Amino acid sequence: MSHKFPVRVFYEDTDMGGIVYHANYLRYIERARSDWVRHLGNDQNAMRDAGIVWVVRHIEADYLATAKFEDELMVETTLRSISGVRLVMDQVVTRGETPIFTAAVTAVCMNAEGRPVRLPAEIRALLLG
User: Of 23, 29, 59, 126, which sits with the fewest C-beta atoms within 10 Å of its C-beta?
Assistant: First the structure.
């Protein structure tokens, strides 16, 4: 299962050198993950109201090339694995066919007290199709 999310680089995304500031790639992949779970039918507001939220536990990232103002990028999110308590996704940002940033992201669900909880069955069902 994979999901694609387009991103256009705005001037505000760039640093003094005219290239995308490194932290903005994390914003791009976050937007893509949020769009992906919304597209699957996961209502994050309802989850929060029920006392459960998604939290990124770990990110392993690799910057392969630079992006610049007005570049059109694509973020592809692919489910790598899912267990009772965690979800691991691979995310790749490309410019055309060229990968420029990759990340492996581990997310978990937390309750209102900040403790990890099992992924709700309905979420697992959405993710596994």
Answer: 23
* Average pLDDT score over residue span 67-87: 96
pLDDT tens-digit series, residues 22-54: 999 999 999 999 999 899 888 888 889 989 999
Q: Which residue out of 15, 49, 71, 90 is catalytically annotated? A: 15
15 is catalytic: yes
Cα-based distances in Å from 71 to 9, 18, 40, 94: 5, 11, 27, 10
DSSP string, 36-102: HHHHHT--HHHHHHTTEEEEEEEEEEEE-S--BTT-EEEEEEEEEEE-SSEEEEEEEEEETTEEEEE
